[in-house]
Write a structure and sequence with these properties.
The structure holds three protein chains of three kinds.
Chain A: H1 2-20, H2 23-46, H3 57-73, H4 78-100, H5 105-125, H6 127-130, H7 154-176, H8 179-196, H9 201-227, H10 238-250, H11 256-275, H12 279-293, H13 297-310
Helix pairs in contact in A: 1-7, 2-7, 2-9, 2-10, 2-11, 3-4, 3-5, 3-9, 4-9, 7-9, 8-9, 10-11, 10-13, 11-13
Chain B: E1 4-13, E2 16-26, E3 31-35, H1 42-50, E4 57-62, E5 65-66, H2 72-77, E6 80-82, H3 95-104, H4 117-133, H5 149-162, E7 167-171, H6 179-194, E8 199-203, H7 207-213, E9 216-221, E10 224-229, H8 231-236, H9 238-243
Parallel strand pairs in B: 3-8, 3-9, 6-7, 7-8
Antiparallel strand pairs in B: 1-2, 1-4, 4-5, 9-10
Chain C: H1 3-35, H2 42-60, H3 63-89, H4 95-117, E1 133-136, E2 139-142, H5 143-165, H6 167-177, H7 179-184, H8 189-215, H9 221-236, H10 241-261, H11 266-280
Antiparallel strand pairs in C: 1-2
Helix pairs in contact in C: 1-5, 1-8, 1-9, 1-10, 2-3, 2-4, 2-8, 2-9, 3-4, 3-8, 5-6, 9-10, 9-11, 10-11
The chains are: A mainly alpha, B alpha/beta, C mainly alpha.
C-alpha cells in the first residue's frame, strides 16, 4: 500500500511540474527524465542480474536513430514511431543478446562494448542512410493519433515522457517481482546453482538483455524527436560509462535509484557546468567514493535507513519483494 | 529397468583419468552410497552424470533416456536434483526464497515464469513444506549466508527436495558438520527417506552415516569401481579394505 | 608506384604500430592476469605517459630522459591508486566494482591532465638522432618507426625473459595462477599486485612517450587507444602475454592495411574480428578466462 501512495504522489507531483517551472528548465527536466528511463533500463542488467554492460549506449543510439529515420521517411503519428523504434531496436538487440550471453563477467562487458563500437562505426559506414558525422536533422514531431497535437509543444512532450517513464517503471517492476525476476536474482547470486535447479540461465539472460535494450531504446527514441536531430555522439561510448555511473550512484537493483540517479546527474551536470570547469573531476570522485563506500547507492542508503527506523533488528525483508533487492 | 544406469562412463583430464570405465545401475527406490578415498573420482562422477562435465567415453541413462552430454539444466529438468560438495546457495536471499526458487523450477508451461501471484504462492507453499521437512522453518526469513554451516547444508538439501526430484544426488551432505549436526542431519534424512518413493545416491566419507542410511554401496578407487554390493559384502571385500588402508571400524 | 616497396613499407608501418600497441596491451594483460581486473584507466595512463614525456622533453630536451621519467611517474601514480582503492576491493569478490573504480579513475585522470596541461595538443619533436627517412625499394620510411620496431621487439623479448627466467617473473606467474597458495608460502601477495599494477602502468606510459612524436599529446588519445587495447587483449586472450603480442600484430596489420584498402570499414573489421573470435573462443585465442 505504501507503494501505491508513493506512486500517486509522484504522479501528481510530475503533473504539476510544468505549472511551476520556467520554460528553459522544462527542457532540462525532459532530458533528465529521458536519462532516468535510460538508467533504469541498465539497472535490469547491472542491478538485478549483475551483468555489467559497457555498451548500453547502443540501445540509446539504436532507439534514437530508429525513431529519427522512421519520422523522416514515413508519415506516422509520433507515438507509433516511438513504439516501432523500440520494436526495431529490440529485434536488432536479439542477436547482440545471443552473442553476448555466451560469455559472462569481463568478456560480456567487452562484447557489449564491441557491439556499441560496431554500431558507432556503422553510422559512418552508411553515411547516405545515417547522415554520417552530420547526423540527421530536422526530425519532425507529427501529430498523434486522433489528431492529438499535444507533443508538438514542449509541455505536451513532457507529459509524453512522464507517461513513458511511469509506464516503463511499472512494467519493469512487475517483471522483477515476477517468478522470472526471482530467477534473475538466482542468476545474480549463484548462476551455477540456478542452472542446477533446472533453469536455462542463458535463455533468461538473453531475455533480460533484450528487455534492457528495449527500454533503453525507448529513451533514445524519445530523445531524437525532442532534440530534433540525431548524431553519432548519441553512440559515443563514454555515454555507456555515464549511465553506469547513474545506476551505481543512484542505487543498483532498485529501479527507482537509477531513475533518481539519472535525473540528478543531468541536473547537476547542467548546473555545475556553468559554475565550474571541474565537474567531470567531481563526478569521477563521487563515483569512486560511492563504489568504495556506499555501493548500494543513494536510494539503497535511503531505504536501509528507513527500514532500520521502521522495523527493529531481526525483521526480514519485505515479503512482497521477491527480487531480494531490499534484503 | 534401472532408474540410473552408467555404462563404461569415463572422464579424462589430459593424462589424468578421473572416472574410469564406471558401470553402475541404481534401481528405483534404492538408497545408494558412493564411497572411496580422496581423489577417487566421486564428485567427478556426479558432475558427469548431472551434465556439469561431458563424458570422454561411455554413457549415462536416466529412465531409459540418454542424459550424458546434456546441459546441466536439462538434466535437472528430467528429475535429478543434486547438492554440491561446496555449499551452493543464494547467499543474500532468505532461506525461504532460496527454496522457493528451487520449487518454482518444477512449474510447467513456457509462460509460467511471468505468472505472477498464483505461481509465487504455489512455489512458496512448496518451499514452506520442504523447510518444515528439514526442520528449518524458524530460519525462513533469515538470509542464507547468516545460517550456520550445518544449517546451510540442510538448506541445500531442502532446495533439492523442493524440486520434487525422482533422483536425489547428495554430494557429501555431512561434510564440515559437527557430531551433533551430523546426527541431526542423518535423523532428518532417514525420516525423509522412510517415506519411500525417492531414489537417492549419496557420496559420503563418514562411514557411520553410510551404514546408517545406505542399502547398497559402490566403492570407487582411482576412478574405478572396485566393489559394488550390500554394506556387509562391501565391508568384507579385501580390495576395499586395502584401498582404505586398514579397513573399517 | 612500386608495389613491393609499398608492401614493405606498409608491413613495417604495421610493425611499428604493433610496437606501440604492444606496450599498452601487455600492461593491460599483465594486470588482468594478476588481478583479474580490466583496467579501464589504461588509456588515461597511456595519455599521462605522453604528457609526462612532453614535459620531460620540454624541460630537459632529452627524449631518453622522457622514456625514463614518464613510466616512473605513471607507475607511481598507478601504484598509489592501487594501494588506495583497488587493494581494498579485493575482499569484495565483485568484479564489477573494479571495472567501475578504474573507470572513475580514467575520468578523473582525463580531467586532471586537462587542468595541468591545458586543452591544446602538445607536440613532441622527434629526437634528433632518429629524424629523417631511409629509402627501402624506393619508398621513404622514417627512422623513428624503425626505432619503434626495435624498442618494441626488445621490450617484448625482455619482458618475456623476465617472466620466464627471473624469480620475480616466476612469482608473478605464480600469483596469477594461485594467489592463495603463494600467500600461504609466505610471500606478500599484495606487494606483488601493487608492483605488477605499477609495471603495467609504466608500460602504457612508455607507449605514450613513443606515440607522442607521431600523434602529439592530446586529450582523448586515451579514449581512442583503450578500445584498441581491449580488442587486442580480448583477441589474444586476457592474461596471456603471448596473446598480447599476437593481438597487437593482428590489430596493427588490420588497421594499417584496412585503412588503405577499406577506409570506411577499417573500424568495423576490427570489431567484427573481435566478435568472431569471442564467439568461437570466449576466452580469446590464448585466454585464461574460463
Amino acid at each position: 500500500m505504501r507503494f501505491a501512495y508513493g506512486l500517486a504522489i509522484a504522479v501528481v507531483g510530475a503533473c504539476l511540474v510544468p505549472l511551476v517551472s520556467p520554460n528553459y528548465m522544462l527542457t532540462i527536466i525532459i532530458e533528465a527524465l529521458i536519462w532516468g528511463i535510460f538508467a533504469m533500463s541498465l539497472d535490469l542488467l547491472v542491478g538485478y542480474t549483475r551483468l555489467y554492460s559497457f555498451g548500453h549506449v547502443a540501445a540509446y543510439g539504436l532507439g534514437a536513430y530508429s525513431s529519427a529515420l522512421l519520422l523522416l521517411h514515413f508519415h506516422m503519428p509520433l507515438p507509433f514511431a516511438i513504439i516501432l523504434a523500440v520494436v526495431i531496436s529490440s529485434l536488432i538487440a536479439t542477436p547482440i543478446a545471443w552473442v553476448c550471453t555466451r560469455t559472462h563477467g569481463v568478456s560480456f562487458a567487452m562484447l557489449t562494448l564491441a557491439f556499441a563500437q560496431l554500431g558507432y562505426a556503422m553510422l559512418y559506414r552508411f553515411k547516405e542512410f545515417t547522415g554520417g558525422s552530420n547526423g540527421l536533422a530536422g526530425i519532425p514531431r507529427p501529430a498523434g493519433p486522433f489528431g492529438i497535437e499535444l507533443f508538438q509543444h514542449k509541455v505536451g512532450y513532457f507529459y509524453l515522457v512522464v507517461f513513458c517513464l511511469f509506464g516503463s517503471y511499472l512494467l519493469c517492476r512487475s517483471l522483477v517481482n515476477s517468478p522470472f525476476g526471482s530467477v534473475l536474482a538466482g542468476i545474480r547470486e549463484n548462476e551455477a546453482k540456478t542452472r542446477a535447479l533446472g533453469y536455462n540461465t542463458r535463455a533468461y539472460k538473453r531475455a533480460i538483455v533484450i528487455a534492457s535494450y528495449g527500454f533503453g531504446s525507448l529513451a533514445g527514441a524519445l530523445y531524437a524527436p525532442f532534440a530534433g536531430f540525431a548524431s553519432p555522439e548519441l553512440f559515443f561510448w563514454l555515454i555507456s560509462g555515464k549511465v553506469l555511473i547513474m545506476v551505481i550512484v543512484g542505487g543498483a537493483g532498485t529501479l527507482i535509484g537509477p531513475i533518481i540517479g539519472g535525473i540528478f546527474f543531468i541536473f547537476l551536470e547542467n548546473q555545475l557546468a556553468e559554475i565550474t570547469d571541474l565537474w567531470p573531476l567531481i563526478f569521477g570522485s563521487v563515483f569512486i567514493a560511492f563504489v568504495m563506500l556506499a555501493p548500494q547507492g543513494i536510494w539503497g542508503l535511503v531505504t536501509s535507513t528507513l527500514n532500520r527506523r521502521r522495523a527493529p533488528a531481526g525483521a526480514g525483508p519485505d515479503p512482497e519483494d521477491v527480487s531480494g533487492a531490499s534484503a | 529397468m534401472p532408474l540410473l544406469e552408467c555404462i563404461r562412463l569415463t572422464r579424462r583430464f589430459g593424462a589424468l583419468i578421473a572416472v574410469d570405465n564406471v558401470n553402475m545401475a541404481v534401481e528405483p527406490g534404492e538408497i545408494r552410497a558412493v564411497i572411496g578415498p580422496n581423489g577417487a573420482g566421486k564428485s567427478t562422477l556426479f558432475n558427469v552424470i548431472t551434465g556439469v562435465l561431458k563424458p570422454t567415453d561411455g554413457e549415462a541413462f536416466f529412465n531409459g533416456e540418454r542424459i550424458s552430454g546434456l546441459p546441466v539444466h536439462e538434466v535437472a529438468q528430467r528429475g535429478i536434483a543434486r547438492t554440491f560438495q561446496l555449499t551452493h546457495l543464494f547467499p543474500q536471499l532468505t532461506a525461504r526464497e532460496n527454496v522457493r526458487i528451487a520449487a518454482q523450477a518444477r512449474l510447467e508451461g513456457r509462460w509460467a515464469m511471468l505468472g505472477g501471484g498464483k505461481v509465487l504462492a504455489q512455489s512458496r507453499r512448496r518451499a514452506d513444506e520442504a523447510l518444515e521437512q528439514l526442520r528449518l522453518t524458524r530460519f525462513s526469513d533469515t538470509p542464507a549466508r547468516n545460517l550456520s554451516h550445518g544449517d546451510q547444508r540442510l538448506l541445500e538439501v531442502a532446495m533439492a527436495v523442493a524440486q520434487a526430484p525422482i533422483l536425489l544426488m547428495l554430494d557429501e551432505p555431512t561434510q564440515g558438520l559437527s557430531i551433533e549436526e551430523t546426527e541431526r542431519a542423518v535423523d532428518i534424512l532417514r525420516q525423509m527417506l522412510a517415506g519411500g518413493g525417492l531414489t537417492v545416491i549419496l557420496v559420503e566419507h563418514d562411514m557411520e552415516v553410510v551404514f546408517k542410511l545406505a542399502e547398497k554401496i559402490t566403492v570407487l578407487h582411482r576412478g574405478q569401481v572396485i566393489a559394488d554390493g550390500t554394506p556387509d559384502e562391501v565391508k568384507a571385500d579385501a580390495q576395499v579394505q586395502s584401498a582404505y588402508l586398514g579397513g573399517f571400524e | 608506384m612500386n608495389f613491393a616497396g609499398f608492401l614493405l613499407t606498409q608491413c613495417l608501418n604495421a610493425l611499428s604500430q604493433a610496437s606501440i600497441l604492444f606496450f599498452i596491451a601487455s600492461g593491460l594483460t599483465l594486470i588482468f592476469g594478476i588481478m583479474r581486473i580490466v583496467n579501464f584507466a589504461h588509456g588515461a595512463l597511456f595519455m599521462l605517459g605522453a604528457y609526462a614525456g612532453y614535459t620531460a622533453v620540454t624541460v630537459t630536451g632529452s627524449f631518453t630522459l622522457a622514456l625514463v621519467f614518464a613510466p616512473l611517474v605513471t607507475g607511481l601514480v598507478g601504484m598509489a591508486f592501487e594501494r588506495a582503492f583497488l587493494s581494498r576491493l579485493y575482499v569484495r569478490g565483485d568484479g564489477g566494482a573494479y571495472l567501475m573504480v578504474t573507470f572513475g579513475l580514467a575520468v578523473i585522470m582525463g580531467e586532471a591532465i586537462r587542468l595541468i596541461w591545458g586543452p591544446q595538443p602538445q607536440g613532441v619533436p622527434t629526437p634528433d638522432m632518429l629524424r629523417g627517412v631511409v629509402f627501402l625499394l624506393n619508398q621513404p620510411f622514417p627512422y623513428y618507426r624503425f626505432f619503434l620496431i626495435a624498442i618494441g621487439a626488445a621490450a617484448a623479448i625482455g619482458l618475456w625473459q623476465f617472466l620466464e627466467r627471473t624469480r620475480a617473473g616466476l612469482l608473478i606467474r605464480a600469483v596469477s595462477q594461485n594467489a592463495e597458495m603463494v600467500h600461504a608460502l609466505g610471500t606478500n601477495v599484495e606487494y606483488v599486485r601493487t608492483g605488477v599494477f605499477g609495471l603495467g602502468c609504466a608500460m602504457a606510459a612508455i607507449g605514450g612517450v613513443l606515440a607522442a612524436p607521431l600523434v602529439t599529446a592530446y586529450l582523448g588519445m586515451g579514449s581512442n587507444v583503450i578500445i584498441d587495447a581491449f580488442v587486442i587483449v580480448i583477441i589474444g586472450g586476457m592474461g596471456s602475454f603471448l596473446g598480447s603480442i599476437i593481438g597487437s600484430l593482428l590489430v596493427a596489420f588490420v588497421q594499417v592495411f584496412g585503412a588503405y584498402y577499406f577506409p570506411n570499414l577499417a573500424l568495423a573489421i576490427m570489431y567484427l574480428l573481435m566478435l568472431l573470435i569471442l564467439v568461437v573462443r570466449p576466452g580469446g585465442l590464448l585466454g585464461k578466462e574460463e
